[in-house]
Each structure stands twice: as C-alpha cells, then as structure tokens.
Amino acid sequence: MRRFNDWVGDKISFWLSTMAAFWIVCAFVLIPLFWQRPEGLIGWVQFLIQSLFQGAALPVLGYVSRKSGENQEHILNETHDTVMDELAMIKDELALAREERDELKVLLAELHAKIPDVIECN
Questions:
Q1: What's the burial of 85, exposed, middle or buried (CB within 10 Å: 0-12/13-18/19+)?
Q2: 59 CB contacts (<8 Å, ≥6 apart)?
Q3: Cα(22)–Cα(57) distance, integer angstroms
Q4: What is the pLDDT of residue 86?
Q5: What is the per-residue pLDDT across 66-95, written as a single tens digit (0 to 9) for each?
Q6: Residue 121 has what pLDDT?
Q7: pTM listed for this prediction
Q8: In whole angstroms, what is the distance from residue 41 CA to residue 49 CA?
Q9: Cβ(14)–Cβ(69) under 8 Å?
Q10: I need a labelling partner for 2 at 20 to 30 A (CA). Which of 30, 32, 49, 67 fits?
Q11: Distance between CA 40 and CA 110 in Å, rounded?
C-alpha cells in the first residue's frame, strides 16, 4: 500500500507542478469572472489572494522547485562522476606505488645480501 501511495503521490505532485496545471487553474479562476465579479475593493483583494495567489501560484512554485531540483540533481551527478573518476585514478596510482614499493623492497633485500660480501672483501 505504501508503494502505491508513493507512486500516486509522485504522479500527482509532478502533474500539479506543471505549467499545464497552472493554466488550468488560471482558467478555473478567471472564467467565473464573466458571470460573477467580486464587489468592492475588499472583494477583489480577497478574490486575488484566494484565487490567484493560493491557486495559480502554487503550480508555478512547484514547477520552479522541480526545475531547481533537476538542476541540483544534474550538478550532484556531475560531481559524483568526477569524484568516482578521481577515485579510480587514485586506486590505479596506489597500485603502481605498491608495485614500485615491492620492487624497492626486493632491491633493498638484494643490497643487504650483497653488503656483507662487499665489506668482507675489503
């Protein structure tokens, strides 16, 4: 049930944050003005606040936040890819450094083995 609710919530929130939803809400707000108009300044102010700011502005805010989220996601994906590339490069360099260290250990062991021979010859 939870997965279904998440799916429905995703679909509804996506649809409500589109510009199509904005235009539909605007139509629902403006079309009734042909038949019934608010009376006086207070009526118009209440109409504007209730209809335009609460109804029409919410899809726009959702649209803007969704676009902002998409931009953030793009930046995060680029950052992740860069970090993963750097990590792979560091792992390769670490492997090379280990190989060189192992070679140096072998050379050092050979030198330690030969040094007593050199000292005895003198």
A1: exposed
A2: 16, 17, 18, 19, 21, 22, 25
A3: 8
A4: 94
A5: 777 888 888 999 999 999 999 999 999 999
A6: 61
A7: 0.48
A8: 12
A9: no
A10: 67
A11: 101
